[in-house]
Amino acid sequence: MYELHVLPVDGALLRGNPLGDPHVRELRVLAPSGHDPARALPAVWMLAAFGNSQGSFLADDPWKEGLARRASRLQAQGMPDLLLVLPDLFTRWGGSQGLDSAATGPYESHLWRELLPLLESRFAVRAHGCAGHSSGGYAALVQAMRHPEIVRACACHAGDMLFEYSYQADFPRAAARLQAEGGVEGLVAAWERAPRRTDGRFAAAVNVLAMAACYSPDGREPLGLALPFDPETAELRPQVWARWLEKDPVRMVEDPQHREALAGLRVLYLDAGKRDDFNLQWGARAFARRLRAHGVAHVFEEFDDGHTGTAYRFDRSLPLLARALA
Length: 326
Fold this sequence. Notes:
single chain; 2 domains; 10 strands; alpha/beta
């Protein structure tokens, strides 16, 4: 069985962040029941999808198996013991992509410079890995590429990549909503007045704002972010769009340092549903092709499903990561 530990976080790096998000947070850790913190275990950092939080992983009801129940079942089926680490990287816009940004805050630095030492002050850790779905899968993969000194295994489930297919389709819809609400600031005001933040009228536009805050921060623009398209015509702004593409894993993997980092992982696992609602199966295929071309060992699987409700895929990745890091 697995039990939850809650570690208070006073994130000095997040103090005074541009969005006014709290710097006092929690680091939640699932550990085997009765675990001796001095016994070193692998740690897998579970990075949340856009619009999700630590609590989303832990949510448990008769129709949805939460992470604690899932880990307990996998343990009973032979998965080696591990620590499942749930950082809080949420922002006003719904997530940080695990990146440092002048428009959101230094969340990547917070993750490794503040949360990792906090975890290791409470639990002995054998090795670190990252896993996540959607934006969390993107963050896990990018951390593996950028921090090979820390991340030794990675699972990317339907991660954001091949941005022209996964994001660009939202640009005309986002432009229409921006015009309807009178621009970026009007859109945000209308969204925050709405009875529920998940109102579908705002989904495309808010997702674009969130990603722009992560990929193209610009202090000269409203809310400190540059849109990748002209809000009047929805035409691409090439210089801004180029900044987004620099952070696309399909492009990032062409950097020799990033490839070297991925090649050094004990396991690199990728998957996507064949009917992914955001076209992320195409990005996963393109990324896997580039890995094959460069001789980078990995496991890539497709499955017959869409984008949401696929947490059962962690049944496949977590035992792989646990065994690789053990």
